[in-house]
Write the structure tokens for this entry.
Amino acid sequence: MQDGDGRSKTAVKVTTNGMVFNIFLTIFKFIAGISGNSAAMIADAVHSFSDFITDIVVIFGLRAAGKPADHNHHYGHGKIETLCAAFVGIVLFIIGLEILQSGLSKILFVAGGGNLEQPGAIAFIAAVVSILTKEGLYRYTLSAGRSIKSDAMIANAWHHRSDAFSSVGTMIGIGGAMILGGRWVILDPVAAVIMSYFIFKVAFEISYTNINELTEAAHDIDIVKEISYIIVSTEGVRDFHKLKTRKIGSNIATDVHIQVDKDLSLIEAHDICTEVENRLRAKFGMDSILYIHCEPDM
């Protein structure tokens, strides 16, 4: 994984590229929605605009998280990235709620005898362009986010895909309305309601994971087992206890008390602690935050 400065630059570059695409896509969708008489496409444009706002928040968070530790932030600024990722999850939930509410209101409107206006071809083209663009941004951002282990970028990638999901519903609705006409326009809100479920699912996963991290939750059991194995398998370590783990940005933080032979010299005991630390950093990254206390095995 890259160092803090390189990681921050990569994250900001990828997110900025996505933001540029979101600006042009939002403008195109608004024009297509207005000229193509498509309320669904106008709503889709609002969704893309929310992506643009989220990109700004993520860029701010990533820049702040890339700053080194200082006299006020002894553990660095990694929690800012976590906070931004949680914010993206909450925004996704709100967007899903709006899509669900809008879809249900249109379904009730048509069920009550109302007619939705038939959209034009430009709105359908805009939906197809949106799906292809947003799916591309999802894959691009997700790949980069995983490579630098950025929760904020991974969350933002799913925000891109949520826009693609909503555009699928819009495309089906617009296409059905254009081909079948009449009351078949109801396909648009039905598809939107279905897509809102997937948006809710992703929003919950992102929010839960990052809010958990903000409340100092321990690492997953698999990571804790890996840490435990590295400690106990280090030569000179007889046992350990009081193992505590948490996550700060993309880094692990670990506190542990290890037990060594009580007859060892201070230098020998210190060397064992250093070896445990080196092995943990080799596995989880050089920026890992480690506190290893050495005790005599009585």
User: Anything to note?
Assistant: The chain is about 70% helix and 10% strand. The first strand starts at residue 239 and ends at 248.
